[in-house]
Fold each of these.
Amino acid sequence: MATLFKENLKILRQEKGIGQVELAKKIGVSKGIISLWENGLREPNMSSLILLSKFFGVSIDYLVGLSD
C-alpha cells in the first residue's frame, strides 16, 4: 500500500496545485504527517484516508492503488 499511496497522494496534491502545508491545514493534520506519508515512512489511518478521499474527490481504493 505504501508505495502506491505515497505516489498517488503526491500526484493528487500537485495536480490540485497545493503544498503540503495547505493540504495539512485542509484535512486537519500536521505538515509533518503529509511529509511522512509522501515519503512512505508512515501510512494514514482510516479516518485520514476518508478525509483525503473526500478532499480530492477520489475513492479510497484509488488512493491506495486498488483501482484506476
Amino acid sequence: MNVRQTTLASLAAMLLISGGTFALVACGSDDNNSSNNNGNGNNNGNGNGNTADSVGSVTITGMHTKSTYGDTNMTIISAAFYSEPQAGGSTGSLPLGCKTIDLANVDAGTGTDAGPSPTPVSAGDITVTVSDNDPATLTWDNANNLYVVSPFPIMENWITGGDDVSVDAKGDVIPAFSANFKAPHNPTFTSDLTAMEQGSDYELTWDNGADSAGAEQIEVTLLNTAGGAMKSVICVFDSSAGTGTIPKAQLTDLGAGDSVSFSAMSTTATRASAGNNKVDVSAMAMYSDTAKIQ
C-alpha cells in the first residue's frame, strides 16, 4: 500500500460513521508485482502484493448510511483510464500483517516535481452487472475526457456479499477486457472493540461468511487523533480465518484514546488482460465503527 492509499484509508476511517460500503476497482497493471512482508506478521510498509503500475480503474461504490432521516442506500460508479501507467491500487492480494503510519509525515513530499496530470483516455463503453439486477453502463464523454454512468446513482441495495459481478469493457485506446467474480461479504465483528490495551496483543474476531482461504482479505485501519498524534495502524488478514492479531507494538504506537476510528474493508479480486496490459479487478465492502485503547 502506498502513501496515497494509506491517506485515503485513514480519511475513510474518519469520515464513515455507520453502514457499509462496497467498491469495485479495476486497475490495469504490468506483471512487476512486489511483496515485502518481514515474516513476523508486521508489514514493513514496502510490500504491495498485487499492487503495480496501472493504466486505469473502474470503481463501484455502494453505500449504506443511517441517520435521523432514515436509511439511505446508493451505488455510485466511476471509471478513468490513462495511456501511460499510473500508480496502482490494492487488489486483495496484499501481504498479511500490520504496520504503523505517521500521518503527520505523509504529505512531507520528496522535493521532486510530480509533473503534469495525465490525460484520461477511453476503454470504450463499460457494462457492470451484479447478479440479476439491471446493469449499469459507463459511456465516454469525448468532449470532457471523462466517463458518464447511467443510472447515477443507483438508489437501492444493488450489490451484496456473494453476488456474481461482471465487468465488460468494449475497448478503445485501452483494449477490451472482461472479468467475472464474486462480491465480498460485509464483516460483522464479534470481539469487543472497546477492550484494546497498549500493553497486550488484541485478538480481532469477525464473521462475514467467507468460506475460502485466501479468496477474501480484510484490511483494518485504526486511526487515533487524540492529542493531535495522527497515528494510523493498517492490518491485512485472511478473511476466512475469522480472527487476526493486532500486535501490542502497533497499539502502543497508536496510544490511548476513547474514540479511535475503526474501519475494515473486505476484498475479493481477479485479474484480466487488456491487450498487453493486465487489469486487476477487486470488489470491496467497508465496515466502520469506533474503538477504544486503554
Amino acid sequence: MKPKLIIDDVIPFLDGRLESHFDCRYLPGEEIARADLRDAEGLLVRTRTRCDADLLEGTPVRMVATATIGHDHIDTAWCDAHGISWSNAPGCNAPAVAQYVYRALIELGLPFPTPETAEDQRPVIGVVGKGNIGSIVVDWGRRLGFRVIVSDPPRAARGLTDEEYLPLDTLMERADVVTFHTPLIRRPTEQLASTVHLCSTRQLELLRPGAYIVNAARGGVVDEEALIEARARKKLHIALDTWENEPSISPATLEVADLATFHIAGYSRQGKERATRAVLTALEEQFGVILPINDLAAPYTPPESLSEASIRASYDIVADDHMMRHEYPQFEHLRNSYPLREEVS
C-alpha cells in the first residue's frame, strides 16, 4: 500500500510527480483538519496550515514539509518532541524578494546612484536580517551602488565577521531605507529573541524624515498601529507586502501604504519551482523514493548584470498594487491565483 500524503492544493508544479509512489489527497491549506490526517503519513503545506498539536496529535503523520521559506506556522519544538520530521525551503524565493524590494523603491521614487554620485550622497539601505533573503538584498544593494548597513543580532551574537552588524536602533538612525527580512518569532529562546513588533514606536521615532520602509518579511514584524501614527509625522514612504492578521488585513494600514501587495514578494516562477523541489527532496529523504525534480529551477545564481532599468522592466508592481487596493477583501484569492513572474535575468 502506498503511503498517503495530504497536500495543500495550490503548491505548484506537483502534477504527476507523486502518484507513482504515494496516495495523494489535495485540499485547500486553510481547511486541512486532523480528521484528514487519520491515515496520512506525510503533510505538504504552505503558510496557511498551522501544524501543531491541535492538528497532528494522534495522527500517523511522520513528516511535514512546507513549500515556503518561513516555518513559523509549524510548531517545530512539538514536532521534534514527537518524532515528526519537518522541513522548509530556505532561500527558495530570495531573488524574487530582492526584486520586489528594489522595484518597490524605484516606484516610491528613491534616487538610485549613478557612477557620478558622490559616495556621501548615495542613499543608505538598512537591511534587517541577513539570512537567505537579506544576503541577496545586501548584495544587490551594493552592486547597484548604494551604501548598505545591516542589523542581525543572532549573527552578531555568533561572532560572524562578514559584516559590521549594527544594533537595530543604530540602523534606524542611519538608514534612508529600512527593509525587513527576519522570521516572525513569537516564542523567544535563549538564542532567538521575539521579532513581534520588532519595528514599533521607538524604532520609527529614530528614522530620518522622509525615510523608506519596506516589509516583505512577516506582517507582525512591523507594528501597524505605530506605522499609521508615524507615517504623516515622519513623511514616510511605505511599501507593504505582508500584513498583520492576514488575510483579514486592516483598511487603515492599507490606506497609509504607498505600495500595497498581497504577500507575493517571493512569487516568482523560479522561486516556486525551488520550493517544490525542496518539498520533493524532503519526501525522497523521508520515504526513500526517487522523484522527478531535475526540470525544476536550480539554486539561485546572481544575474550577470543588474541595473535600475533591468529591475524596472522585470516586474509591474503597480499592477499588483492596483489589484490589492480594489480587491483586498479577496486577499487569499489574489494570492492563490497570482500569475508567477520571472526573476531578474
